[in-house]
Write a structure and sequence with these properties.
globular; 2 strands; mainly alpha; disordered N terminus
Length: 438
């Protein structure tokens, strides 16, 4: 890499780091304004106190370890377990929350200290990139939690009646899948809940395959799953602020797992009675339930995992397909999303993935056209959900196929465009046969 190109890239990464830090500080201040700790405080607490998600911390550590040698990886895992065991035993003795993950965070922070104090040059940069990648995954979760708090506090009304009405065009899939999940009993529900909650861990598994050669090559690939995964999580919550929605189980049910929310529900209908078709309007809701339905980011993340698993071995391709199907089933079956949320989530994911790939390979006409098309379709979906729900409900035979066609058109455009982007392999020329000498 030439020095003329390296300098702008360093400046770009430095600017991105400053923006990310400023964003975290802004969220911290906003959360403090509502009397709750923000993402920075919550992350700092997990150095000592019980982590919110141990598997996520270990997934972050696994991402960091792609820059280490196998010997260093074994040492890192051993240190993490050695730190976690006494923490776990103390919590067990005190009757506290039985969780783990402090050791993984200690290892990531320790590697950051080693990079600054013991490494130099390219080795230091590579290790810091690995630590940053692992911590970004964890920080993304904390940032999302802060965003959800802000949506609940600042958006006093929700637009669920608009989506419930528009969902008639698709046949109210949340109500249908909700009854199916209910019929499977606790086994099906627990299996889907595991898939839904551990989505980030599934992403790390695919990312580890993509980043398996980082330590040997001494650099990260230009584009990988984690970049798109984090971009989806950064951009998506901003749309929550524009289109606040709580989901069927809250707006038309008794709240998740029956823990309350019925006093704010429009009616107790989910999942057995589809909502009637009536003129939609904004409705007030509590200050606790996140407005995190439009678009479905779980669908978006599962779509990104599916896309990035296509070039992996067969087992990972199968896992990516399974995780996508199971995530779609969970989002609908638990009443967390409407069907129209999922369509928007797929379009959103494909558009962000196209933008991230274009950013890596360099923007050209095909990339700009693809991202612009996905953005226009996504905006058209939001506008139709907001201003045409009655027409969509009254003419499902027209609008249902149109919604699916709009989603399929973005997917098709992505597949067609990225196929052209793939590097062409020149055929191996065969030597011409030489005439035999008599």
């Amino acid at each position: 890499m030439s020095a003329s190109w390296r300098r702008p890239r360093v400046m770009l990464w430095a600017a991105a780091g400053v923006v990310a830090l400023g964003f975290l500080v802004a969220l911290e201040i906003a959360a403090r304004g509502y009397g709750l700790p923000g993402p920075i405080t919550n992350q700092a607490r997990e150095v000592i106190f019980a982590p919110a998600s141990g598997p996520l911390l270990y997934a972050g550590m696994a991402l960091m370890m792609v820059v280490l040698t196998w010997r260093q990886r074994f040492i890192a895992v051993g240190v993490a377990v050695a730190v976690d065991v006494p923490f776990f035993l103390v919590r067990w003795a005190l009757g506290d929350k039985m969780t783990f993950g402090n050791g993984a965070l200690w290892v990531m922070l320790g590697c950051a200290v080693i990079a600054v104090t013991r490494r130099t040059g390219a080795d230091r940069v590579l290790l810091l990139k690995g630590v940053g990648l692992g911590l970004l995954l964890v920080a993304g979760r904390k940032t999302g939690d802060a965003w959800l708090l802000i949506t609940a506090e600042t958006r006093k009304t929700v637009l669920d009646p608009y989506l419930a009405t528009a969902d008639h065009a698709l046949g109210n899939p949340s109500w249908l899948v909700g009854r199916i999940v209910e019929a499977t009993g606790p086994i099906g529900a627990h299996a889907l809940d595991f898939v839904y909650v551990q989505l980030a861990v599934a992403a790390v598994v695919v990312a580890l395959y993509q980043l398996r050669n980082v330590a040997a090559e001494g650099r990260f690939p230009g584009h990988h799953l984690v970049r798109t995964f984090l971009a989806v999580g950064l951009l998506g919550p901003g749309i929550y602020m524009i289109f606040p929605v709580v989901g069927p189980i809250f707006a038309y049910g008794t709240g998740a797992f029956g823990t309350g929310g019925e006093q704010w529900a429009i009616a107790d209908l989910w999942p057995h009675t589809p909502p009637p078709i009536s003129t939609p309007h904004e409705v007030p809701f509590d200050e606790l339930t996140p407005r995190n339905c439009m678009p479905s980011l779980h669908t978006a993340w599962a779509t990104v995992i599916f896309i990035h698993s296509r070039k992996a071995p067969r087992a990972l391709r199968f896992a990516g397909t399974f995780w996508l199907i199971a995530t779609l089933s969970a989002t609908l079956g638990f009443g967390y999303h409407y069907g129209v949320d999922l369509i928007a989530g797929v379009v959103f994911a494909v558009t962000v993935e196209a933008a991230m790939r274009s950013l890596d390979r360099g923007w050209d006409r095909s990339g700009i056209r693809l991202v612009a098309f996905g953005t226009v379709v996504f905006a058209a979906l939001l506008l139709s959900y907001r201003y045409l729900p009655m027409e969509m409900a009254r003419h499902p035979w027209l609008f249902g196929p149109l919604l699916l066609l709009a989603m399929a058109s973005v997917v098709h455009a992505y597949m067609r465009t990225t196929k052209v982007w793939e590097p062409k392999t020149a055929p191996v020329s065969q030597p011409e046969p030489q005439p035999e000498l008599v």
